[in-house]
Amino acid sequence: MSAALPLSHAEQQQDDSRALLEDALEHAAHLLPSQPPLHAFVHHNTLHAFEDDDFDRALLKAASLYGTEPYQSEQAFAAHLAQGRIDSRDIEAVLAHAAGGARALWPDGPACAQLWRFRLCHAFETPAAETVAWMVSEGELFADVHDAVGVSARAAWLTRYPSRRRLTGALRALWQQLLAAAPASSPPRRGVRVRDALLARADVDIDEWIHPMMIRLAGAYLDQGIAQVGMPHRGAGFLAAVRTLHARPGRLCERWQGGLADIARDHAMRDLDALDTVAWALETLGIPRADWAGYVLHTLLPLKGWAGMFHQYATNPERLPVRNVPATLADFLAVLLTLETVAIGYALGQADGLAAHGTAAAVVLGMTGADAPAAAATAQARPDLGAVFEAFVVAQGLVLTAEALRDTGRARALVDAVYAFDNLTRRRLLHAAYERHYRVHVLDSLIAHQPHCRDEPARPALQAVFCMDEREESLRRHLEELHPAVQTFGYAGFFGVAMSYRGLDDVRARPLCPVVVTPRHLVEELPLDDAAHARYQQARRRRGRASNFVRTARDDALRGSGWALLVGTLKIVPLIGCSLFPRAFARVMHWLHDLGLERPHTRLRVEGSGKIDPASGLALGFTVAEMTDIVHGMLATMGLTQDFAPVVLIVGHGSSSLNNPHEAAHDCGATGGGRGGPNARAFAAMANHPEVRARLATRGIVLDDATWFVGAYHNTCDDAMSYYDTDLVPATHARALNDAREQLALACTRDAHERCRRFESAPAVLEIDDAMHHAEEHATDLGQPRPEYGHATNAVCVIGRRRSTRGLFMDRRAFLISYDPTTDPDGERLGALLAAAAPVGAGISLEYYFSYVDPRGYGCGTKLPHNITGLIGVVDGHASDLRTGLPWQMVEIHEPMRLLVVVEATPATLEHIVATRPGVATLVLNRWIQLVSVDPASGAVMVFEDGHFEPYQPHSRDLAIVESSMDHYAGHRQHLPCARVRQEVDHAV
Amino acid sequence: MLSEPLSHVAAWLVPLLVALPVAAFVAILLPPLFGRAKSEAWTYGLVRIGVVGATLLALCLAVALLTGIEVPRTVDAGRWFAVGHDVFEVRFGLDGLGLAYGSFSLLLVALAAAFSRRYLHREQGFHRFYALLVLFAAGLALVCFAGSLDMLLIGWELVGISSTLLIAFFNQRPNPVRNALRAFVTYRACDVGLVLAIVCLHVGWGDADFVRDPDGGWLVLPYREGAALGVLAAGALVFAAMGKSAQVPFSGWLPRAMEGPTPSSAIFYGALSVHLGPFLLLRCCELVQSEPWLAATLVVIGLATAGHGALVGRVQTDIKSMLAYGSVTQVGLIMAEVGLGLHLLALLHIIGHAGYRTLQILRAPSLLHDRHHLEQMLGHHVSHAADLDSDGHRWLAAPAMYRHALERGGLDALLADRFVGALLGALRRFDRCEQRCASAFARAVLRRLPRRRARAGDAVEKAHVS
């Protein structure tokens, strides 16, 4: 047919379809998970693709697209109500906020708000239509007032209908009335793919054929080094490699694959590229062009993890662990659709009754054309019993009898109102109430704490800068509690040093800065003594080669047998060790590992002339001017411009654990999922640099010999601290540093103790001395799926001076960023700070939100069956879609809420920032974070709602006062309210 | 003098050893049956009693045997049932083979139980997991300490069912259930071999008891001259062992079995369950070796499996499948060793392989961590395929060969598509044929029925619709 058309027309059409498919692919790629390979895990908003939409609307859109849950379940909210996590004031507040609540259902009838209140406070389960029908026919529904209605409503019914018989009669009458007004049940949703039609009609699921094969092929193609033999011809692209593999029919292949070889050969001969292949497949399947975009998207979604990883390979090759593989989403789709076409062809030939239809298109048309009206007609005839059931219970709850609803218009109004206030609407409001409860508590606590704010110690003994991370909140609090003369600060954990870093042991450099920043500087760790380094490397290489030999030998047939016969039985020793004495075993192994290995002293090559390294294309180190800017930027933003302590610690953080494919997810988000120690070390080196100090002095920050910066690293999993370049510390500061180390060691113990209360494996009352052991065991145990709880429970971000939160117990739930509004009159620094920190904080909080509310749809489910594949991700068990998001063991104690960002700045400053910084504006205006302003001068609190700041009135000025943090949390496992720690505040005076 | 009472005690230790995990299994399951939820500590306490108790008993017996204390080789704990001449005794057996494998296995189960205490903490199926684990321990003990093939069969089935249910541990997802079904069907199909062997032996020789082999000191199924059924029994036993130990062509279920929590995958498919095939054949070595061609077949099957596992394992891109094929390879070699009559070597190989493979699977989730450290030590990336288009294994990198390996030798297609598919097709045809006959018959009958009946039928149908 196409031959009859003028050539130019055919070409034109081909170009059109290519453009169409390119758009479709771009759109689909946007909606796929954007998680990079696991070793480079960075928290990000799971629904980043929907950020241009309002939070609630985006949730609903995503829920209908992916089939996921937007909020916690109604039962979960019911439990929160029962436990007082949501109270009646929260419900009233959200009802007052919802439009249309005052409208009466009918003249003189109950108000909508009344109905809504009942539904929010009395959750009940709606049985399936069949169950309802059965309950009606058995009369069970009319035997008694429904359990969900309140005590008073029940009493009202029983007084009106004292005998059982009359009650039953009244309920039955009510049911009949509501049934008469019932809406028709909606027909079930049907997928858009031919596969869905085939499944519905012939009970054949071709996804069960093509997906296992697709997963094998995709896994083989993307593999970064698990398989000993890689897929041949990977350099030519996925589509070409698959065509080469399947160019000949296999002797032993699944039957449906029979037609694949001919097609693969034919396509290879015609030199069809990915888009042509997709177009061919869609045309063969008979999909109308108008539906192509949707068809492409819905074909990719069932394998969205793998598809997303192909896209990641194409767009972010620098994040791959080992090497670049030329993968594109178009290739993935082309292979998938080729397989689909082959499978559908086979299924049509096989399934009885379908062969007559001829083509796939006919099957689809058959589904939508012939059957659809009939199906719709039968649905029309059937009333939606679920809706009637809900209206029936609501009527009971509002004590609306059959007489009250005699007018059918009223029954209809009731049923419609109940129907409109559907599950998702209820959960949206309950979620708002849930968030409000916590928001009120935190803001009230901050306000109640205000009069007790004390200025920081005038001449601090130690200043320590930590990451903004909410896991450092407790460490800072304990440090201040133990040593009131200590002053702490919080800043994004890369400390302004955006670099690509290569440690002494690293195979290649990796970026250590927020994901949104592209590093332009390379910093390397270099040994001081080359001879010592050579010895060290030699010993390590030897050991590395030995363990690599063992590793490969075990999986080999003959060497594996030798291994089994020689040492296999002895493996019972490490088995006993890791099962029964995990911590001691880890220590022994560590000791054995370090035996005879002496790591040479090193320095970071921080300073550079601005010369570009030809290999990496990055500048080697930072120039003095750049270093000055970095140091000045951070110190000025935090307001640390004078009164320096003898020692200023810069503490980066990271986390090391076993049995944890998601290890990198516990690292520092501000360094792009890396460990922030080198950043702290580099910053300290910069701040100690004499020329930098000289230049700083001209800009108003005078650093003299009385102050020394020391970089340090905090392992948040086992609460160990390590310090860098201590040999450089002047003798005059040695004592101060020693004191600082002791103080931090003690604070770390307390921190571990506070952390352990969340682990059910630790006794509720844990001796403080056992806390470190317990934390260490979690980090080194091969059988421990919860090395730490990471960012779980994060909820607040306070940006401002520490004085407003110092002495306030915030339960490790608050990101704390030091910002001094007095040095930033025009809000420029705050703008930059928010633009960098808000996406990081929101990304973390939202990723936890989604992985918690739908652990299977958004998260990656339980860790226990996870199986690492290709060194890039995990699958469930033997084979599945690549699982993205967070595992349940990481998020199980989280409270899913949007981040509450409290900023010490005037509303005008914040409004200006929102108006000028698009990144911040998206998050704030589309309500992905909650923004609160605390006036730096007056302390007045304003909450950003509906596009403007509204004054906030505290509900209670009560704030628990405790002697110490430990008094507050001891013996508790649950989330704790804020409290003022007396000990610290009093000491600080 | 001393050994008399000791041996008397030892006689009762063996049944006790099997009874302990069974008792723990019952005790774990009873409270939930009556709606009482128990704490993790309670369940784990029961597991400790059941599994650690059994392990200690087994180790005691092993020590007794090693130190030369006279222990009874068979213990009759009573009669199970009798049909005509065939008497089924509840008979336990005690020998070096059973004790070596049994005590090592129970020790591994006990360690896995301790390990899983932390691993499965707070998991929904915690109690179910441990119930199945102790059931597995009971089955394993019974296999190792059975005094006859009849008793061994019970243990064999317990191992099979607990293993199937643990594959389907995450039963909310379809894949684990589907793969558990595949393992179950393979197990059941091959168990027919064991049952067939028992029937043959009973018919041919009247019993299937193990007796002490005068050379090795192990209990073995004796070969008696003059029964053609013996050959059939031996073949059936090899068939049974092939399924349990994932030999070609039944290898496909093993990687698919990696659906449960990691510790259960480690001890079932890395260590214990897969080795039961060679264990069974060691018990029945006389019978298998009585026919040279059968022993040769066993060697061929074992070597074919080893080759298959080595080939397929090289291209697997997920760590658990790779380890599963590593197991397939080693078990294949062990089978070949059994076929060659290298019994002691096979036993040592089993134990050594079980030891290191368990640890390897337990460490699998730390792969990224370990790989990172290894690369730091080596100073370069660990990668066999150095560049994308060519690598060291040229013969395997040929598309046809690679595809053969990636598709796992087409064994799944062979079994599922060709064999089971054909069977199901035949059954479906029978079904259709039967339906046609039945409806033709029904039409013929209905035509002759009085109208009243038909109306009654209509009424029922109407009520159903409304």
Question: What are the main properties of this structure?
Answer:
heterodimer, A: 989 residues, alpha/beta, six-stranded mixed sheet, 49% helix, 10% strand, globular, disordered C terminus, B: 466 residues, mainly alpha, two-stranded antiparallel sheet, two-stranded antiparallel ribbon, 19 helices
What features would you describe in this structure?
The complex is a heterodimer of chains A (989) and B (466). In chain A, 49% of the residues lie in helices and 10% in strands. Chain A is α/β, with parallel strands linked by helices and 989 residues long. In chain A, β10 and β11 form a beta hairpin. Chain B is globular and about 80 Å long. Chain B has 19 helices and four strands. By secondary structure, chain B is mostly helical. Chain B has helices spanning 3-33, 40-66, 96-119, 126-144, 149-167, 174-205, 228-244, 253-256, 262-272, 276-283, 285-289, 292-313, 319-339, 343-363, 367-378, 394-397, 399-406, 411-448, 451-465; strands at 74-83, 86-93, 211-212, 219-220. A two-stranded antiparallel sheet of chain B has the order 1-2. A two-stranded antiparallel sheet of chain B has the order 3-4. Chains A and B meet through α10, α22, α23, α24 and β15 of A and α3, α6, α12, α13 and α14 of B.
